[in-house]
Design goal:
YbaK protein, eight-stranded mixed beta sheet, about 160 residues, 6 helices
Length: about 160
């Protein structure tokens, strides 16, 4: 497995340096952070949401979840909810389900980023497969994805 060409091209064509991280396949953000030897708060997971029916990408620290009310406020949409796997299928043809890279511009989607991710100078995220991640400077990532930043992440509630 390797980073899909479209994702690598997108980054390289913008002249942005990155470090590929290849790790054992992992399926929860926490496992991934551990597998890639990245501190949980540097690992950004990407969650697909629908805002008034339009797909968009929400990025937040691995061990947090989306507070839909807060995200709705940030997007100024009438309604926001998490997308189902069925709705995600086909949106990111070059990526494994649930492993899409947070490059909204590549998919014609907006990116919303929880502002807690701005605390670190580097960011690590999925690069299209469950075994590949990318690490880059936060400033470079912001240049690439042009995210709207604001507070919408909340700690996971244990027990579900």
């Amino acid at each position: 497995m390797a980073i899909p060409v479209s994702i690598e091209q997108f980054v390289v064509s913008h002249g942005v340096p990155f470090t590929p991280i290849h790790h054992r396949a992992a399926f929860t953000a926490q496992e991934e952070a551990a597998a890639a030897h990245v501190r949980g708060r540097e690992w950004a997971k990407t969650v697909v949401c629908l805002a008034d029916g339009k797909p968009m990408l929400a990025m937040l620290p691995a061990h947090y979840q989306v507070n839909v009310t807060a995200l709705k406020r940030l997007t100024k949409a009438t309604w926001v909810r998490l997308a189902t796997e069925h709705e995600m299928a086909g949106l990111y043809p070059d990526c494994d389900t649930g492993a899409m890279a947070p490059f909204g511009p590549l998919y014609g989607q907006e990116v919303y980023m929880d502002d807690s991710l701005l605390a670190d100078p580097e960011i690590v995220f999925h690069a299209g497969t469950h075994a590949d991640a990318m690490r880059m400077r936060l400033a470079d990532f912001i240049k690439l994805a042009n995210p709207v930043c604001g507070p919408f992440a909340e700690p996971m509630h244990h027990g579900h």
